[in-house]
Recover the amino acids of this structure.
């Protein structure tokens, strides 16, 4: 479905010796149809860049990005993106926002109305169809954005920390909604997050990324039964496995972002005893 | 007051107001269309910004009345000269407001629209211009007051049949009451258009765009 081969992305003029300018290097990744893959890593590891490459919003400096066997040349109707902010259009009502991708694609009349209704019902917001986005809560806005991402019926859903700005309770609800919608629609999902638990909660596979340069460090399978819960023990175990993997990377970032007087925390108690837990899952 | 009533009765004032507004409508629509187009160009096309950007900023320093001599030489003593003054008086402020409105729309909105397949004209008409609309309305409001002032300055000059001419006629007849009467009318019309038209439009737009919270 999605294949990245030897992908590197460098930013022009980004400092000496390629320090800050290496966005991504030597990334190989394959994602099968219907898979739920989480990209997890510290800030600056290029996970958003990776998503943008697949979305066609940016292009790789080296290597190639294939979706369905075709090289990505720009945004396409087979892939939609959901961002951390809902990016709804404030001048349109909820229903008109959801209808927008269909309008652009030239889907009209009854078909458009039916699909808008179907997906707004899927996120339980049909009753709010005439409201303006700014009258809704953050969680509701993200659900509208989810409906809007699904309405054109793409095969691939790209999500860039879509729930990061929400409070924990709302996030739990949306995890469950997303899981249900995913099981219902069988989309391929690539979900970017820096939240380790979120990655363990949602992903079939968790791609752990490292920084300087941004690269894939390890891929962890997480084939737990669904529906899952964020505080379930299995999820927690996967999460702590991811966390151990990420610890070095995060310390690297902290060292870079602080001055020399700031030494990142020492080894936590758990790191030694059960650091390898979940490795073989 | 009596002068005002007299002028009103004779139909002079009403005709003058009608004439002025008709003129304003033409000039203002023209400058609105040109101004928005120019502003969009300044915001998005590098070559427009490089060539016209400094010119626009520089010309803004010229009060609209100062265009009159040039306009008169160019078009002669007539309708076109007044229109030119109106357009030049309001065009630049509308263009600059449009430019900054387009430049300050959230980049994320454009990205989101692109991932949904919006491109070219669709992207502009359905996303960028609506997103910039509140800013454009503010610019249009500013442009309106500039256009109104330029209009009256232009009309003072000759037999234009507009409000400005009535004002000038009052001066020639040493009719202080008429002069002040016309000035009162100008204030009233300015206030009315501002309050009834633009303030409402702006408030409505801000409310619908969700800019009024907090």
């Amino acid at each position: 479905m999605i294949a990245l081969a030897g992908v590197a992305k460098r930013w022009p003029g980004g400092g000496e010796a390629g320090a800050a300018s290496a966005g991504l290097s030597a990334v190989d990744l394959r994602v099968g149809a219907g898979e739920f893959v989480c990209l997890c890593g510290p800030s600056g590891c290029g996970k958003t860049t990776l998503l943008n490459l697949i979305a066609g919003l940016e292009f790789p400096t080296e290597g190639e990005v294939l979706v369905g066997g075709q090289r990505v040349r720009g945004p396409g109707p087979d892939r939609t993106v959901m961002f951390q902010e809902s990016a709804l259009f404030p001048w349109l009502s909820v229903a008109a926002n959801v209808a927008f991708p269909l309008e652009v694609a030239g889907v009209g009349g009854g078909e458009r109305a039916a699909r808008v209704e179907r997906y707004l019902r899927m996120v339980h917001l049909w009753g709010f169809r005439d409201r303006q986005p700014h009258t809704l809560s953050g969680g509701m806005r993200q659900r509208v954005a989810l409906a809007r991402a699904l309405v054109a019926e793409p095969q691939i859903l790209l999500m860039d920390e879509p729930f990061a700005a929400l409070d924990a309770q709302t996030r739990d609800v949306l995890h469950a909604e997303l899981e249900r919608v995913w099981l219902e629609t069988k989309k391929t999902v690539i979900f970017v997050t820096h939240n380790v638990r979120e990655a363990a909660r949602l992903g079939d596979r968790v791609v752990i990324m490292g920084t300087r340069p941004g690269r894939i460090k390890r891929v962890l399978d997480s084939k737990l039964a669904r529906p899952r819960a964020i505080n379930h023990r299995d999820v927690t175990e996967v999460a702590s496995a991811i966390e151990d993997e990420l610890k070095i990377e995060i310390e690297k970032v902290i060292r870079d972002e602080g001055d020399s007087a700031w030494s990142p925390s020492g080894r936590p108690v758990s790191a030694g005893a059960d650091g390898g837990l979940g490795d073989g899952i | 007051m009596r002068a005002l009533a007299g002028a009103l009765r004779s139909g002079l004032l009403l005709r003058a107001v009608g004439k002025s507004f008709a003129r304003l409508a033409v000039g203002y629509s023209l400058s609105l269309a040109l101004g928005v187009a120019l502003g969009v160009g300044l915001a998005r096309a590098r070559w427009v910004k490089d060539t016209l950007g400094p010119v626009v900023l520089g010309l803004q320093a010229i009060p609209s009345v100062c265009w009159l001599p040039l306009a008169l030489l160019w078009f002669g003593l007539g309708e076109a000269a007044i229109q030119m003054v109106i357009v030049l008086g309001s065009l630049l402020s509308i263009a600059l407001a449009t430019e900054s409105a387009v430049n300050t729309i959230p980049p994320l909105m454009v990205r989101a629209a692109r991932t949904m397949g919006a491109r070219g004209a669709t992207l502009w008409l359905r996303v960028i211009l609506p997103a910039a609309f509140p800013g454009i309305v503010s610019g249009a409001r500013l442009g309106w007051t500039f256009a109104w002032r330029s209009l009256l300055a232009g009309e003072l000059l000759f037999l234009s049949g507009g409000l400005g001419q009535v004002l000038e006629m009052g001066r020639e007849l040493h009719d202080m009451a008429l002069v002040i009467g016309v000035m009162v009318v100008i204030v009233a019309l300015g206030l009315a258009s501002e309050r009834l038209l633009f303030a409402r439009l702006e408030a409505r737009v801000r409310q619908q765009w969700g800019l009024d919270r907090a």
